[in-house]
Write a structure and sequence with these properties.
single chain, mainly alpha, 2 domains
Amino acid sequence: MGFLDAEIGMLPRLDEHNEQWQEWEKVRPGTISRFERVLGWYRAIGEEDPEELWPNSISEVKQTLQNHAQQLSGLPALDPGNADWGNLLGQLDGSLANLESWWRQSGRSLLRGPVVGMATAAADAHAIVEQIKADAAQVAELREQVQQSVQEIQTLEVAEHYSKQAANRGTAANRALGAVIVFGVLLVVGGAIFVNTIPDTSEGQWTEFAREALLRAFVLGALSYGVVFAARIYRTNSHLRAVYDQKATALKTFVVFSQTIDDPDARTLILAELVRSVFSAADTGVLDKGGTERTIIDSVPGIAAALTSSRGSK
């Protein structure tokens, strides 16, 4: 780090106020290259060891940069439509010219003659390295954000799949419920009709009575079986609809939490609970779970270790 970094940082940057820089360049061609050259000069001074310089020289160069940085701070207001355009342009030109003049008169003597070019190159290289570090940090942050976005999109796709399955199971359950109602009505109405129409056996026609009774028993038994079978389909699909709804809700909830929680340990715990919710047997109240609380997390130690590795490494 150079001892003039703070003062150089007060000067306007070339990557800001682009329109104003272009207006200045249009009126005074070569302004941008002059400014880049001036920055290189003063960065070169900043790379010198301050212990090898006179304290008065250090104070002088700092004061010079601060004064002209204050004058150059008017750059953002440089606009051809500004009534004070001419005065402002003259002020900027004068500040840049004074920086060049001070360098030629006093600044260059602060450098060790033959190594001026090397010092300038070192200062430029240092600035480039710092910019690369900043860009690398931004790229790493963007990559992490992209990876997180991809994971969230994939999670929502799985949640959408479970939502569609829940809708399909809900439709099947409604149809099965309709079948239960139909078979139930037929069983009640048919039973009443068949019981009331059994023939009289007062004349001893037991063979005919047995035939009629067996026929009615078969029909009522088939209707009863239809009611039981349709009810079983209804219960099964109602259970599956609740299970798929639970899985879809868990996945969507994980996306919400992952967008609001930055702590890695908390995200790991939420992920573990998500896997448990998706893979464990669900108690919906429709059917008995008939399963176990053990999930893929508990059954495969490697997965548990991977999920908790971030906590273990701290």
